[in-house]
Amino acid sequence: MAEEMAATFHEQAAEYDRTAAFPHRNIDALREVGYLKLTVPEELGGLGGDLSDMAAAQERLATGCASTALAVNMHLSMAGQMARNWRTTGDERARQMLNDIVDGRVILMGATAEPGHALVRSTGAKARKVEGGYLVTGDKTFGTGSAVMTHMTSMAEYREHPEGPHVLVFRVPADRPGVRVVQGTWNSAALRATRSDNVELRDVLVAEEEVLTSYPVGTLDGSLLQTLWGWAMPTFAAVYLGVAVGAFEQCVRDVRNRDWEDLPYVRVLVSECEALVETSRAVIERTTREVMGNDLWDSLSVQQGMARVVLAKTVGTNNAVEIVDRVSRIVGTPALRPGSVYERAHRDVRAGTMHPYNNSDACELIAATVFETEVAPAVPPRLDRLA
Fold first, then answer.
1. What is the pTM of this model?
2. How far is CA 366 from CA 41, 137, 352, in A?
3. Domain-by-domain residue ranges, the chain?
């Protein structure tokens, strides 16, 4: 399915990038063929894909349109997290939302990032307790998928928590009063068609039952390792790797058309690209199996598990940059033509190194873990194992 959709999306990807228009038609097509229910359990009408399936499919989808794949990644990873929660706890609200995804009524996305805050460990948004829930006010960046979302996951700090300031992670309908996508705030050279505009929250009512989890400010939360980090990091890597794979595959076709297959310089760079692709796939696949098998929290500390999934994202995204750089050296001036698959890939993969966890934050976490230095206090997962 991803292969067929990627081939279709490839035809319009340059135009979406040129105009920075969100690919609504692509999302509609993915909904129609059932791709948006990839990570919903089969018994609920979904395709029953796990994290490994999602990573493989998303890599292939990204070869056709990077912006479409990244926007869809938010939805699929959240649906997959919800599916594991439903299998483990039997939560009725999760089951109903998964059913709504199957019926095409729900598209999920997240808006958690804020300038000046350690990702997930702190947030500038504030929650004020009211009867039955909280009123949340704050400003979020990188609202990827906000153009089509029906429900949004975000977070805010509740300072008056009896155990000290806590981060509340919540999900609310996108049409909830006080939620506003600030159009025109996404002006990027990379992934232009994601329309990752800022999201504004102004006294948004969050009911108690809409709070997914909470944890002390400044901590590494084990439940987020089981959900957000475990599902997002390896699949982000897969998307950016897919962008590079798309450019590499086009490069191989162009090399054959030019009869350059026997040029020593070309052969060296092509073999290096192949090694980078397969190395990335191996690390991503290992990590997805560890997440699905509960290994990252069964046998490792929360920080060790976090470092492991962040490493997968770092390897995938940095290798994607290396692949595209080699491809550009092979094809020469076509890599500079505006709107070409090479020029788009050159811009898009570089966003991967800045996409949270960005390279600098990843290096801090990974190195500290190697040296057995605590980067922040850890909170154990709420559930020991997930089904």
1. 0.97
2. 33, 33, 17
3. 2-107, 126-216, 220-379
